[in-house]
Specification:
This protein is α+β, with helices and mostly antiparallel strands. It is 49% helix and 18% strand. The N terminus is likely disordered.
Length: 1045
């Protein structure tokens, strides 16, 4: 049994059959066109004569005047009046028309296109036929004038025998005339060319026929060119419109550009050059535009394909794009001779475009013949058009303009776009329907989940409330506070569950409301109590400006609580500082309640989607996270159910104002009766008012201010000191519960700004910060900390509700040591705190040991020099020897006081050590070492031990003593209001910039400079800032640090 051929072979054979069939159809149409439109005949012209006396002009159609014309190089036969221009022409040459004059113009084997000449042809016609004849001159490079029987009938440009008097213009033209009485028609064409470096003279066949035949042929050609131009232009316009209307497919834009370039090329360079009939441009710009349009069209054609799928082409494409677009741009600024020099480049780029386009389209077609049939037709029609154009040019055939191949090609391409657009539209509708179904399922799931959560949540709340009421006298204050926090968080969760259940209830229909006369003032007061603590934590004041005697409104009391809570909670959430005001006024039979804030405001884009479900400002814009984005949507629907309106006005950076309206209670009779008689769905489920208001516990009961801003009482001296930052007080409360005060010394802050303010208050072992905070995010806070402390000097642990890789990466790039995903688990966060504080304590112990080592270290040469000085002075000056021994003894005594290495000492002790050290060194170096003291009254100022002496020792050893003549040490202590500035300055050899940058860097192979590095890190540990070193090579060094008073 024979096997069926593989499917891919069948597809290939189908492709070949389709291509062959289309080529046959297109070629048949071409041949038919050549045969029918129009009937053009070629005649043989010899030695400048043509005998047409046997020719019937009325039946004979149009003749192509090809053959041997008389040629008069570098001379005019006639002047503008038709008189002999030279007093008798020289013997003529014979030249083939159409064709260039390059070889015949100057003779002597010299070929040049530049110059002027005259053509002459004598035609004999039947003198008895009194007909009007017409002649059509399509192209003479690059200016010409036509004389018939000595009369100037037409011209293009201005011919002249000098370049200065000459004007180039090569446009087709026609002229009508009659033969003289003897049936003679003398044609003289005088031409000049000084700009076109190609072959000059009569470039295309001149046509002769009856006036009616030539006019008919011209009309047909103009009509076809106009038809093609209009169709191409329409394609360009609608493709651009489709792109601008929202289908941002770049290939649509390139298709529009392609058809525009085809249109421009068609009306600039084809037979009739229609562009010049509407707009006058010079010959130079005609030449530039047509060639630039060709280059841009090639680029646009390639961009309409999937050429980027060709892997090898992707590396070459950027070079190709720059080359072809650069060539098009350069073309616009070149003169015609220079443009002609670029023709090989045009040809090469055109060939590259054609090859890559064919490969890309073929590859696309091979993916599925059925889906890309139109693309196949377009490519075949386009190739067919260019092959025929090449054939007609080389064969010198002259036919009327034939636009249908290009029209078919562009039409098929347009159909491809239309097909893609409609397919995309259908896919979009299908996706929209799917998304709507998913959205409905999501809402149903959330509503069902809320129902399931509500019962156990209420059970937890009731049991917690019972325990609190029953056991309050027996519980510690901390336990009472934590139970109250559980109740507050649980009631807030109840409000969120109510919103989730309302989504489906509101979507299902118009639920009945239990309307009655409700006073707005106490509702606002109750909701303010719920949110007062959140507002005060953020330095936001809430002002209730509704008068106590404000008239009641007709509303469902529970729903009004929900609306006011949502609006006021939204205002508190997006207001970082300032105030929130609640106002009310009446107008006619309605009450208007307005809630205005001084928050971040909203732009027009946000306002348009503000009341859509699940919409809220993105965390990346506001650095505020949390919520479902349902509150405002539900509030608007609830207000509209009360036959009111909810409107908003907002200015970014200035704040927002929400205003809703309700009917006053005095006008409720008819409306309450109508609502009571309605058979709508049951009332929306809601939490009772007393439970909702009860969620707003007093600030003192929930979270005392001391718990936020003050550190917990000290229980153990070695507890890690933690600085925790979060804008949500509930999160702070949870962290406080996780980190017991007997194990951790915790200080809390509610903003990055507040954290930076207390950063220098003490030495911190760890900073724990939330990421999403208003005004200053956790990322920015971490960056600010890293400007002063390294990863080991002050670790940072970030808390994030999002665990996306980009969020975690942003934290590490900002300088964080680690992160924990919220909600935090006690074991995880305590383990990470233990790891990070251990790092800090290890670094602290290293610094302590280094300081002890520095304290105990005495350079041998220093000891030997001091003893040698004592020995020498014993023979010379006993008093000076005794002073030296006292200072040396004082120096040793301070050096070996190990109990001071970890903390601060009075500055006088450090200065006493420095004075003893300097006395010993001055005895040794005598006049080579000068010391200048400028010390203010320091009072009780304390600094780390061995913080000034290593700086002085470094200045002597590596600074002034590097000079043979020594130098001067300046020790300056300036006392200011909050700090003292200590400076050690020398006029020694100084340092280069590279050395200065490395001097405080601790590296694995660091063998020296431990004193400076250790001093810098200990200063940062105690005061938050280290050493500031300035130095210039050859001028000296200045070292400064600040100590808090």
């Amino acid at each position: 049994m024979a096997k069926s051929p593989p499917s891919h072979q069948i597809r290939k054979s189908h492709i070949l059959w389709l291509i062959g069939l289309l080529i046959v159809i297109l070629s048949s149409m071409r041949l038919l066109w050549v045969e029918v439109f129009p009937d053009q005949q070629q005649v043989t012209i010899k030695k400048g004569y043509l005998d047409l006396r046997e020719w019937d002009a009325e039946e004979g159609g149009i003749l192509l005047l090809d053959g041997e014309w008389e040629f008069y190089p570098m001379q005019w036969l006639l002047d503008g009046s038709g008189q002999d221009a030279s007093g008798g022409p020289k013997p003529p040459k014979l030249i083939a028309v159409p064709g260039g004059w390059n070889q015949a113009l100057h003779g002597n084997g010299k070929a040049s296109p530049y110059g002027f000449a005259s053509y002459r042809l004598r035609i004999l016609v039947n003198p008895e036929e009194k007909l009007n004849y017409s002649i059509r001159v399509p192209s003479v490079r690059s200016s010409s004038e036509l004389y018939v029987n000595g009369r100037l009938l037409a011209e293009s440009g201005r011919v002249a025998d000098t370049k200065e008097a000459y004007t180039a213009k090569n446009l087709p033209y026609s002229a009508s005339f009659t033969a003289d009485g003897n049936g003679v028609i003398e044609l003289v064409i005088q031409a000049a060319n000084y700009v076109d470096s190609r072959s000059s003279g009569i470039a295309r066949s001149i046509k002769l026929g009856s006036e009616e035949a030539v006019a008919k042929e011209m009309k047909l050609s103009v009509s076809m060119q106009t038809l093609g131009a209009v169709i191409f232009l329409m394609h360009s316009v609608y493709a651009l419109i489709l792109f601008l209307l929202g289908n941002r497919e770049k290939r649509l834009l390139y298709f529009s550009l392609l058809t525009l370039c085809v249109t421009l090329s068609s009306i600039l360079s084809t037979d009739e050059k229609l562009f010049h009939q509407f707009i006058y441009i010079s010959s130079d710009w005609d030449f530039r535009l047509s060639n630039a349009a060709f280059m841009i069209g090639c680029y646009a054609l390639l961009e309409c394909t999937n050429h980027r799928e060709l892997s090898y082409w992707n590396r070459v494409h950027p070079v190709y794009a720059v080359t072809i677009l650069g060539t098009a741009g350069i073309t616009l600024f070149l003169a015609p001779p220079q443009v002609i020099m670029l023709f090989p480049v045009y040809f090469l780029l055109g060939c590259v475009t054609a090859v890559i386009t064919i490969i890309a389209i073929t590859k696309t077609i091979m993916k599925g013949i059925k889906d890309h049939l139109l693309l196949l037709f377009s490519m075949v029609a386009l190739v067919h058009h260019f092959l025929w154009a090449l054939f007609l040019r080389e064969s010198a055939l002259s036919v009327a303009h034939y636009p249908f191949d290009l029209i078919l090609s562009m039409g098929c391409l347009a159909a491809v776009w239309f097909k893609g657009y409609f397919k995309m539209h259908a896919n979009t509708k299908e996706i929209a329907a799917t998304l709507q179904r998913v959205n409905d399922h999501k809402d149903q799931f959330l509503a069902n989940t809320s129902h399931e959560f509500k019962n156990p949540l209420h059970s937890m709340l009731n049991m917690s409330q019972s325990v609190l009421n029953r056991e309050r006298p027996l519980l510690q204050d901390r336990s009472v506070k934590e139970l109250e926090t559980i109740l507050t968080v649980g009631r807030r969760l109840t409000l969120i569950l109510n919103d989730l259940m309302d989504v489906m209830s509101l979507r299902d229909g118009n639920p009945r409301l239990q309307k009655k006369a409700v006073s707005i003032q106490p509702i606002v007061t109750g909701v303010m109590d719920m949110l007062q603590f959140n507002a005060e934590v953020k330095s936001v004041s809430i002002v209730n400006q509704i008068p106590e005697d404000f008239p009641p409104v007709l509303a469902d009391e529970n729903r009004m609580i929900q609306v006011v809570f949502n609006l006021l909670h939204n205002a508190v959430k997006y207001t970082n500082e300032g105030y929130i005001s609640i106002q009310a006024f009446t107008e006619d039979d309605r009450a208007y309640i307005a809630i205005a804030d001084t928050g971040i405001g909203m732009d027009e884009t946000m306002l348009k989607r503000l009341f859509l479900p699940y919409e809220q400002a993105s965390a990346s814009e506001t650095m505020i996270e949390g919520g479902f984005g349902l509150g405002l949507s539900i509030s608007k629907q609830l207000i509209e159910l009360h036959r009111g309106t909810l409107e908003v006005a907002s200015v970014p950076g200035e704040g927002s104002r929400f205003t809703f309206s309700l009917k006053l209670a005095g006008f409720e009779t008819e409306e309450v009766q109508r609502d009571s008689n309605s058979n709508g769905p049951p009332t929306l489920p809601s939490m009772p008012m007393q439970d909702t208001i009860g969620a707003g516990l007093q600030k003192e009961e929930i979270f005392p201010p001391a718990a936020i801003q003050g550190a917990l009482p000290e229980r153990r001296s070695n507890r890690p000191t933690l600085l925790i930052i979060d804008d949500d007080p509930v999160n702070l409360q949870v962290l406080e519960a996780i980190l017991p005060p007997d194990e951790y010394e915790v200080t809390m802050a509610t903003s990055g700004k507040e954290a930076l303010a207390v950063l220098d208050a003490k030495e911190w072992d760890l900073v724990i910060s939330d990421i999403m905070m208003p005004q200053m995010s956790g990322y920015e806070l971490t960056r600010r900390i890293r400007e002063r402390f390294t990863l080991t000097e002050l670790p940072v642990l970030l808390l994030t509700a999002r665990s996306q890789p980009k969020d975690i990466q942003s934290g590490f790039l900002a300088g964080a040591n680690d992160y924990v995903t919220k909600p935090v688990e006690a074991l995880e966060i305590r383990s990470r705190i233990e790891a990070l504080t251990t790092i800090k304590q290890t670094v602290r112990e290293q610094l302590r040991l280094e300081a002890a080592w520095l304290q105990a270290q005495i350079q041998p040469h220093f000891l030997f020099n001091a003893l040698n000085a004592v020995t020498a002075l014993s023979d010379v000056d006993l008093d000076k020897m005794r002073n030296l021994l006292e200072e040396f003894s004082n120096f040793l005594r301070y050096k070996f006081r190990f109990q001071d290495t970890a903390g601060l000492v009075p500055i006088e002790e450090e200065l006493s050590l420095v004075r003893s050290y300097l006395y010993i060194e001055q005895v040794r170096f005598e006049e080579r070492l000068q010391v200048v003291w400028e010390v203010d009254d320091c009072g009780a100022l304390q600094i780390p031990f061995l913080s000034i002496q290593p700086l002085v020792e470094n200045a002597i050893r590596h600074g002034v003593m590097k000079h043979t003549y020594g130098g001067t040490i300046h020790i300056r202590i300036s006392v200011h209001a909050a700090h003292a500035e200590i400076t050690v300055q020398d006029d020694g050899i100084g340092m280069e910039e590279a050395q200065l940058q490395r001097i405080l860097e601790r590296t694995a192979n660091h063998q020296s400079g431990v004193g400076l590095i250790n001093t810098d890190q200990r200063l940062k540990r105690h005061f938050g800032t280290g050493l500031h070193i300035q130095s210039r090579l050859g001028e000296g060094t200045r070292v400064t640090f600040h100590a808090r008073i």
